[in-house]
Structure formats: C-alpha cells, structure tokens
Amino acid sequence: MKRWNFTPYHQQIDEGLAILGTPLPEHDTQWPEWEVFVQAKRGGPHVNVGAVHAPDPEMALLLAKENFIRREPCVNLWIVNTEDIHATASEDDALFQYTFDRTYRNTTGFKLDKPTAE
Amino acid sequence: MTDDELLARFEARIDRGEKIEPGDWMPERYRSGLIRMISQHAHSEIIGALPEGAWIPYAPTLKRKMTLIAKVQDEVGHGQMLYRAAETLGITREEMIDQLLTGKATYSNVFNYPAETWADVALIGWLIDGAAIVNQTKLLLGSYGPYARAMERICFEEGFHLKQGYDAICVLMAGTPSQRAMVQDALNRWWWPIMMFQGPRDKDSVHSAELLRWKVKIKTNDELRQEFLTKFVPKILAFGLVIPDPELRFHEETKEWTFTEPDWDEFKRVIRGGGPMNKERLGVRRLAHESGRWVREALDAFVREGRAA
Ligand SMILES: [Fe+2]
Ligand SMILES: [Fe+2]
Question: Which of B1, B80, B293 to probe by mutation at the A interface, max A CB count within 10 Å?
Fold first, then answer.
C-alpha cells in the first residue's frame, strides 16, 4: 500500500537497479559556465562567488540564486559567461611588481609634520 | 624555464603559503591528485544526500522536515561547487558524473551504509558532518585556490549541518527510554563506519607524502582521526551513550587515543562496491539522472530554437 501520492526516488530502488548497468548515452549536457557575482547590499561591489552551468543567462541566474543565495544577503546578481572573461596570465604576477619605489603615489610618501624649507 | 625550475618556483610559492591558481604551471601529479580528491569529494556530497534525502517524507516535525530539505539541498550544492572546482584542472563535469554513474569513481564509504531510523539521520548530521568538518576546515588551508574557495562556503554551511544534527540528538536523548535506545543503536551501527571515515591508516595510505608536501592534504588520516576523537568522544559520553569500543582510551602522556582498529578489509570491500548500499545508492542516482534527462534536453531545445519559436 502506497502512503504517498508522489514517488521519491528512494522508493523506486528496483527501477534504479534495473537500469544501473545499462550504457550511458554518449553525449549528455555539458552546459556553458557562468561566473556568478553577488551584490550583498546596495552601494556595495558585485563579488565573484563561484560559477554555475546553464544553457542560457536566464537559467544561469536561477541556478546562481539556488546555489549561492540560500541564506546569505543579496540585492542583485550578475552572471557572466566564463568565456567572456579576459585575464592576465596568472603566472604573470611579476607584471604587477613595482620596479622602483612608488611611495610618492601614496600618503605615506609624504611627511609634513612641521613646515620645512625645501 | 626547465621543468625543474618550474617545480622549484611552484614549491616555493606553496612554501610561502600562497595559493596555486588554475592558469599556473603545476606538476602532473598535483593536477591528477587534486582531480581525484576533489571529484571524490564532489561525488560524496551528491551520494551523501541520498540516505538523508530518503528520510525527508518521514521527518518527525515540519521544522525537522524543512531543516532536512535545506541540508540535503546544501549537500547537492556542495557537489556542484566541487565539480566546478575540479573542472578548472581540465576535466569536465560531464566526465565526472559519467564516472560516478558507471561505478568507476569512488566516494566516501560511509554513505554505503543504510540510514535505518530517525536517530541515524540525527547521528549522521552530528557525527558524520562533524567528522567532515574536521577534514574540511583543514582543506581550507590547502594550496589550490578554487578548492580552498569552495571550502570556505562549504564549511560555513557545514556548521549548520552539525548544529541541527546535535540539536536533533539532544531532543532524542531528552526523550523517552526508547528514543534514547534508538540513538544508542544508531551509534552502535555507525561507530565503525565513522572510524573509517578519515580513510586508511597512514601506514596503508598510498598517496600521502607528496600530497602533504604540496598542501593538497594538510593533515594525515591518522591525525584527522585523532582530532575527531578528541573533539567528539567527550560529547558522546556526556550524553551517557556507550561507545561500542571497550579499548578506546585517551593517554594523557602522549595526548593520543588508542582504539580497536575498524575492519580495514571491510573498508576495501565496500570501496570496491561490496557494501550494503553501494548498488542501491548508484541505482537511485542513475534513476534520478535519467528522470531529469528530458528536462535537460528540453532546455537545450528551448535555447537552440529560441524562445520566440
Ligand atoms: Fe557537504
Ligand atoms: Fe554536510
């Protein structure tokens, strides 16, 4: 006697076992990847939190919400096709090393505690 | 740069405590070790959702039901995040899912045991998620950026899993004698699978040394097991529960636990597919995969043909 009007998968173990050894179709869906950016509060930045697979932007937004906003604050979501992101090579971090003292670009480069003649 | 120079630069970066990012040069064994570990971890999250998911229709109260749904949804989300982290190493999610469904992949042995009563569900949330937290808080410190980032979010959610499991145990232990007996019975059956949760003993563990040096692993299996015992044995005993190992003892001098070794032959048998629930778990997973196929195909067609059509 069935007590539910729905059939959770765990009640269909025999059906599962019956197809277990059968070959998988050659191509399943490997959807494009979308990077997810969350804006936690108005005025704040959109921060990358991870990525989802989805066939289109609309579905990507839906999955991003399900995957990343189950309990954390969010006022706005962005998704960007991962292929559309252009980046410097990660091994090129030397590119961002300063070759000479650049403290003159910062407040710390100036000590004006009392007036002095130059 | 020669391979030796690249390796030296890679290891120096790890020694400095910096993370490795997807585009970086990395040794092949680092890449393959990570793929094996992260995909196994992802599969464990997906299969781990099954024993608990099966209890959703039977949860004793509406709050417990909603909590259990939230936890199971978290676990499946963890699986997705981890598949994505592994993909940055050059394998696709589709390949990993195929490996799982065809029985080529392994996942945590602990999910190949049955969750027979509600006390099992409570105990899984408390002690198995608890054991997982011991591992996962270490993985946060791992050297691979995408894995460590995924771990941050996962650890945050695991905190809730542990708390709700502990809470469910508290309620049962404050209940009737038969409720308390149900928890004791769950502990008796789950103790040995839990003792195997951190994996084989260090002396039997094949991959460890290099992965530890490259901070793919942070602690050895034996160290993690010791930490689990230190954290949880006092809490188990505080309930008046009896741990089914008369040899379990803490030694003040060495600050170590000694215990009866779990049956490591059983461990090998279960990982090769011979556990009580291996077939059922994969069967249910495969059925869910097949049942969802029409949705995936419909979405594909929808995108291909355009929504105006
Ligand atoms: Fe999880
Ligand atoms: Fe969990």
Answer: B80
Q: ipTM of this predicted complex? A: 0.89
Verdict on whether the full-model pTM lies above 0.80? yes
What is the band of A2 on the pLDDT scale with cuts at 50, 70, 90? Answer: very low
Contact list in A for residue B297 (CB cut-off 8 A) is 29
User: Which of A19, A29, A89 is the closest to B286 by Cβ?
Assistant: A19
Q: Which domains, from first to last, does chain A contain?
A: 30-83 (3.10.20.520)
> For residue B125, how far is its CA from the centre of ligand 2 (angstroms)?
7
Which of A4, A10, A22, A97 best probes binding to B when mutated, by most B CB atoms within 10 angstroms?
A10
Instruction: Tell me which chain A residues have a C-beta less than 8 angstroms from the C-beta of B293.
Output: 28
- The reply to whether residue A30 touches residue B94, judged by beta carbons under 8 angstroms, is yes
Give me B169's structure tokens. Answer: 């145990």
Q: For B181-219, how does the pLDDT look when each residue is reduced to its tens digit (9 = 90+)?
A: 999 999 999 999 999 999 999 998 876 788 999 999 999
Q: Which domains does chain B have, with CATH numbers?
A: 3-308 (1.20.1260.10)
The least confident of A21-25, A55-59, A81-85, B262-266 is A21-25
Separation between Cα atoms, residue B191 and residue B175, nearest integer Å: 22
Residues contacting residue A91 through CB under 8 Å, at least 6 positions apart: B23, B24, B25
Helix or strand run (H / E) with residue A79: strand A76-81
Closest CA to B80 of A54, A72, A113, A96: A54
3-state DSSP call for residue B16?
A: coil
- By residue count, chain B amounts to 309
CA–centroid distance, B220 to ligand 2, in Å, is 21
The backbone region for A68, taken as left when phi is positive above 0, alpha when psi lies in -120 to 50, beta otherwise, is: alpha
Q: Do A70 and B74 touch (CB under 8 A)?
A: yes
Question: What whole-number distance in Å separates Cα of residue B236 and Cα of residue B178?
Answer: 18
- Cα B110 to Cα A55, B277, B278, distances in angstroms: 34, 10, 10
Q: Which of A4, A19, A66 sits opposite B290 (nearest CB)?
A: A19
